[in-house]
Structure formats: C-alpha cells, structure tokens
Amino acid sequence: MTDYKFSKQIKRFSIILTIIGAIGIAFGFYNAPSNVEESKEIVAKMSHDGYGDHSDSHADGYGEDSHGASGHEYDHDKHVFHQLQNKPWAAIYVPALFFMMISLGVLAFYAIQRASQAGWSIVLYRLMEGVTGYLLPGSIFVIIILVFSALKFNHLFLWMDPDVVAHDEIIRNKVGYLNIPFFFARAIIYISGWVLYRNITRKLSLEQDTNNDMSIHKKLFKFSAGFLVFFLISESMMSWDWIMSIDPHWFSTLFGWYVFAGMFVSGITTLAIITIYLKSQNYLSFVNDSHIHDLAKFMFGVSVFWAYLWFSQFMLIWYSNIPEEVTYFITRIEDYNFLFFGMVVLNLIFPLIVLMNSDFKKTNFIVILTGIVIIIGHYLDVYNMIMPSAVGDMWSFGPAEIGGFLFFLGIFTYVVFKEISKAPILAKGDPFIEESKTFQYYNLD
Amino acid sequence: MSAKRLHVMFDDDDILLDAIKEIVKNKIYIYEVYTPFPVHGLDKAMKLKPTNISIATFIYGCIGFTVAVLMMYYIMIVDWPQDIGGKPSFTLIENIPSFVPIIFEMTVFFAAHLMVITFYMKSKLWPFKKAENPEPATTDDKFLVDMESGSNLSKTKTMLKKMGAVSIKEVKEESEK
Asked: Are residues B57 and B46 in the same domain?
C-alpha cells in the first residue's frame, strides 16, 4: 500500500482543461451582445442557421408577464438582449453549481456512512474526503457568480432587480424571503455549516490514524448525525435560493429532494470513477470487487430514486395544470424537448438497463461507462434547471457552455486529487477497518 | 455393501461450511442441508448452480408492464374514455403520465407475486404441507447434512468427526418415505 502521490499526468490534464475552459468562457463573454442592436444581429444570424423561429413563438411566459402586464416598457428585443447577455453567465453558473453539488453529494454520502457506522465503505473514506475538499472552492465560485448577479452584471435572478420587483406583485409578496442581504446571509450559513463539518471530520479522521481512540469514533458519529439534520434543511433551502429563485414565480414543494437526488447520484458516481481510476493505478489494493459492486448498486438505486422524484414533480404539475406551475414544464418541453427527455434516458433508462445485471456492477469498464453517462445526464439536468429561465429559447452548446464545463472539471480534478494526495490513502485508525478490508458480498465469487 | 444415508449434525455454521467443502471434495453426494438461518456461501460450497429466479422475475416484471399498459389502454381509451380533471382520454400516449403509477405498481405486483409463487413451487411448498424436516433441532440451533455415506462408511465417519460433526446417524433409505 502506497500513499497517493499527485501525479504529473493529472496535473497537466487538469491545467490544460482549465485553460481550454477559460478560453471558451472568454470567447462566450466576448460574443455576448453589449447592446440591443448587436443582440438583434445575433438573433437574425441564428434564425438563418435554422435555430428555430424565434420571432413568433415565445414560450418563456413569465418574462413578459412580470414586466409587460404591469405596463412597464419592456419590448421583445430588449428581453432577448437580456437573455443573450445572461447566456455566458448561465453557462458558467451551471457547471459551477454542478461540480459544487457533486462535492456536496459526496459529503452527504460520507456523513451517512459515518452516522450509520457502515463497515464496507471505510476504505473509501479518504477518497470521499478528497472529493469534499472541493466544497469550499466550489462554493466560493458559486458565491462569486451570485455576487455578480446582485451587482447587476447579469439578469439571472430577476428578483434582484428592484425595477422588476416594483412592477411584479407575486415577487413583491416574496420580498421578505427573496431579498439580497438575507439571500447572502443564508448562503454564508449553508456554506460555513457544510465546510465546518467537512473540516472537523477531516481533522478527526486524520487524528484517528495515529491513535485508535474510541472517543474520536464516537465524536465522528455524533457530528455526522447532527450534520445530516442541518444538511437536509440547508440543502433544500439552497436549492430554492440558488436554483428555484431563478424562476421567482414558480415553486415546487419537492424541489429540494429532487436536487438532492441529483447531487447524490452524481457524487456517488464521481466517487466510483475516482475509485476505479486509483485502483487501476495500483493505489487501492484493499478495494475489491465487492466495494465496486456496492458503489454501482448505489448508482443504480439512486438513479431510480432520482427518476421517481423527477416524475413525481412532473406528473403532479402536468395533472393539475395550474398556469403558474405549468409554465415551467411548457418552456422545457417546447424549447428543450430533446434535452429534457434525453436527460431522462441518460439518467434513468441507461443505468437501469445496464446496471441491472449483477455481474456488470463489478465490471470496472461498465461502471466507468455508465458513470460517464450519468455525469453527463446530471450536468444536463442542472442545465435544464437553469437555462430555460435564464436564456429562454436562446440556448445552445457553444464555446461558453463547453468551456465552462471543462474549466470547472479541470479545477475539480486538480483540487480533488491534490487533496487525496495530502493524506494517507487508507483511514487505518477506524475501528471497523478490518471489516471493510475483508468486505465480501456473499453473492460474488 | 450398498451406500447408506447419513444424517450428520453440526452446531456451528462456519464448521458446517468447512465440512461441506470437505464432503464435496470427497465426491460424496449431499441430498440436502437443513439450517436454522440462511448460511451465506453454502450454495457455493455445495456447488449448486446459481438460481435463475432473478431472470424469471425480470420476465414476470415485463409481463406485468405489458398487462398494465394493455389494461389501461382498454379501460381508459377503448372501453370507456373518461374526462378526469379536464384531461380527456383520447389516446394512450397523451395520457401516459397518469398511467405511469399504475404501470409501475402492476410491474412490481407481477414481479413480486409470481416470483414468490415460483419459489414455492420450485421448493415444493404449499399450504398444509407436512414439514420434510428430519430433525426439529435444525429450526433452533443445529445444522443437519443429509448425505450419502460414500463407498467407505468408516472412512467417511472419521472424516466427518474430524471436521467437527456433533452426531452421525445412519438412516435407512426406505424409512424416509
């Protein structure tokens, strides 16, 4: 057993990704229109390219509703201009949020393992701690984008614009909750809570390596159980604040759960991919097929759980057909049809069919393949949450979107592997470590 | 001398597992093993072939899925289309979201029930059936191996004793019935 050394390969790979990503993002911002005239030109060019007939259909219902209905001067061109201005911002907001949530999902997974005193997963603790190392930088990226929104560099969050609020009764009724100081106060509470738990458990876990003190184990258990209570509340509120409030008129009561299922499955998938990668580099001799099998079972199960919540949210809103709720899905089905349903294929149908077979769950190649599909699917899921409200039907996968994804992927990879290399690769002080090392799922040979 | 049938008792599942491996290694046929709880790895040690019940269950689930779709199609589209909450039922595809919960439940229902019924039939269990258990202690804390004696009875007995058998009983082939 050798401790992981931050390899040159990973370093070079992640730096190259970050640079390519940064170029893509810069290109996206450069291409964004700076006034209404430029935006008109872009739209004219886009419809030439066959980007759909933008001029007559405009499904983004509440945009007009919030401005036009109250007699505010707000013509169509200006609206499109704001959407195009939003586009590069939304393109970096989606991956920033996505990778932050991967880290947060792994943190929740880690807390569950600690609180349930699970035996099998102890050999993976250091990898989980590595992934959660991205939580602080990831949250800071998100906060920076939110601060830019509050400073009116973009119109991602309509309710941050006092002009809009003054003419919109629905948002006006929510001002008690949706106002900038309270919004950032909440954000700071969530992030400090998560990072505090992460750093405390990391410190205790490293301390445990040198002495087999039972009191540390008990402390870890207590912190984790307490954190889970805090997490479920803060995660739900985070999803209202950072995602749902982009659509300030719309609401869904199970949205927090839905976002949680998404981050949980993408977190576990990332963990499985990192585990298999490091195992292939001969760092994890103590990880056997049964551990991989368990991770794949989680990927399978939580994918189905995600689909259950996705469908529950969709069906209730579709069935009741209440205008202020149903606009959300009308936008997505009319303007994002392929993405919206394609994402369900990637996130449910594919893992369901491939990972159903027990033998496939321990086949590294298949777990990696399914993992990549799930990661892409859940990126598209976040894309589907943000983009329709931010840019309406002006979406595309241009340099900014791809660049944004690569940029954060690069930083994520760098931070995570750097963090893994900082500590012994096995949490050898844990009282259940032997159980984890010899873990054997009885149905596997 | 014809082969006799032996009832061998053990009182620990790990000892039982090692003994079973030894018996299988000596190529002695095991009729059945009676245990108070499922012993993990016992099927592997006995070299039983893996169960196909998961494949059967998958097929039952597919049947349930099909039955549910056809059922909802007949009930809600063909036979008596109803307008529920402003959602008129004219085509299956337009109304599929409201049928998904039913399709899901029927899939689970078929898969679960048919699987259990298959399992009972395969294990020859049905209501009011008399227990086949030769030794009631195996429902408490003992493990019993019902096996052939092999060609050399005394050699088998020594081997079983060495592997930790608590008691060895010779039974007549016919008295069983």
From this structure: no
Asked if the C-beta of A315 comes within 8 angstroms of chain B's C-beta atoms, the answer is yes
Chain A nearest-CA distance from B93, in A, is 14
Subunit contact B97:A314, Cβ cutoff 8 A:
yes
Phi, psi of B141 (to 5 degrees): -140, 15
Q: Residue B64 and residue A439: Cα distance in Å, rounded?
A: 36
- pTM, two decimal places: 0.88
Q: For position B18, which CATH number holds? A: 3.30.70
- Tell me: do B41 and B79 sit in the same domain: no
Of A315, A356, A445, the CB nearest to B97: A315
For chain B positions 88-107, those within 8 Å of chain A (CB to CB) are 97-98, 100-101
Total number of domains in chain B: 2
Contacts of B58 in chain A (CB under 8 A): 356
Let me know how long chain B is.
177
Q: Which of residues 80-109 of A touch B (CB under 8 A)?
A: none
pLDDT mean by block of 10 residues, chain A; 445 residues:
85 95 92 80 66 43 43 67 87 95 96 94 94 96 94 88 87 90 95 96 92 88 96 95 92 93 96 95 92 95 96 92 90 92 94 92 94 96 92 87 95 95 91 91 77
3-state SS, residue B135: coil
Query: A445 and B86: CB-CB below 8 Å?
Result: no
Query: What does the longest C-alpha to C-alpha distance in chain B come to?
Result: 83
Give A-chain residues touching B111 at CB under 8 angstroms.
none
Residues B83 and B22 in one domain: no
Q: Are the CB atoms for B10 and B164 separated by under 8 Å?
A: yes
Residue B23, in any domain of the structure:
yes
Gap from B164 CA to chain A (nearest CA, Å): 24
Residue B127 lies in a domain: no
Q: In 3D, which of A436, A433, A424, A435 has the Cα closest to residue A207?
A: A424
Both B64 and B104 in a single domain? yes
* Cβ–Cβ below 8 Å for A319 and B101: no
Query: Same domain for B111 and B79?
Result: yes
* Residues contacting A418, CB < 8 A, separation 6+: A6, A133
**Residue A364 contacts by C-beta under 8 Å, 6 or more apart in sequence?**
A276, A279, A280, A292
Distance of CA A383 to the CA centre of its chain: 9
Same domain, B14 and B59: no
Residue B165: domain span: 5-50+142-176
Q: Is B162's Cβ below 8 Å from some Cβ in A?
A: no
Q: Is residue B162 part of a domain?
A: yes
Q: Is B86 contained in some domain?
A: yes
The answer to whether the CB atoms of A445 and B44 lie below 8 A apart is: yes
B14, B17, B40: which to substitute to probe chain A, counting the most A Cβ within 10 Å?
B40
